[in-house]
Amino acid sequence: MSGLVSGLQNRVRRFESARNLKRQNALLAQLVEQLTLNQWVQGSNP
Length: 46
Hints:
Elements: H1 2-37
């Protein structure tokens, strides 16, 4: 039974890691977009 629990815990950890990576990639993409598209617009708020 502990093997089943351990396997489930590993799956949850991998899922959370993938979710965090996607979130970090989305934040990085947003930052790049703001820096490349808004840098010449007066009054833009990055």
